[in-house]
Amino acid sequence: MRQKGLVLDQRVRAVTEAAARLFSTRGFMETSMEEIAQGARMSKGGVYHYFGSKTEILYAIVSDFMDKVLEDIEAQLAGLDNAEERLSLLVRRHVEIYIRHMHAARVLLKHATNLPSDQLGQLTSKEERYYAAVAGVITPFLSQAPDRGVLTAVTFSLLGMCNWIYSWYDPTGPIGPERLSEIIIAIFTGGVRSVGQ
Predict the structure, then answer these.
(1) Using CA atoms, how far apart are residues 45 and 29, in angstroms rounded to an integer?
(2) Is residue 153 part of a domain?
(3) Domain range spanning residue 67?
(4) Within a 13 Å sphere around the CA of 55, how many CA atoms are in the beta-carbon half?
């Protein structure tokens, strides 16, 4: 990649934001570099100055998004006293980030498999770090030593509720982000304690 790290300058961000909109609405395979350039209000050569390929743009989108998801997550959770507070922070934070970056979230969930194996592996490492944080938040709601399979199922169930809001949620509709977070927390806490019984 022709950029230094993932601290994206304004022009690079214009490219990734335009591409995220296009990938999420039209599809990764269906979007051309010309369309990305038009969306970013740049020349095609200008896009190639920062990115050597469409796949590099895809990786920048999903990797930067996961960096936002992971930013200070362990420290924020460690600063809270009880399981309910940690769950509330996790869900509210997740919903807020996904709503603020809905196109990038959709690209991650629908198009990341188009990445080459080395980049997919790097992305998977970031996803595994977030999974570990979520599993750590969930564990106190289960038995003292939850079965690993049960913990995996419950963790992905919570992630599923949070992740798939991209497919149906309208932040301008009658349910605001705060209320949506409350609903997810209530459904989860109302059902999870029965799993270990």
Answers:
(1) 20
(2) yes
(3) 60-192
(4) 8
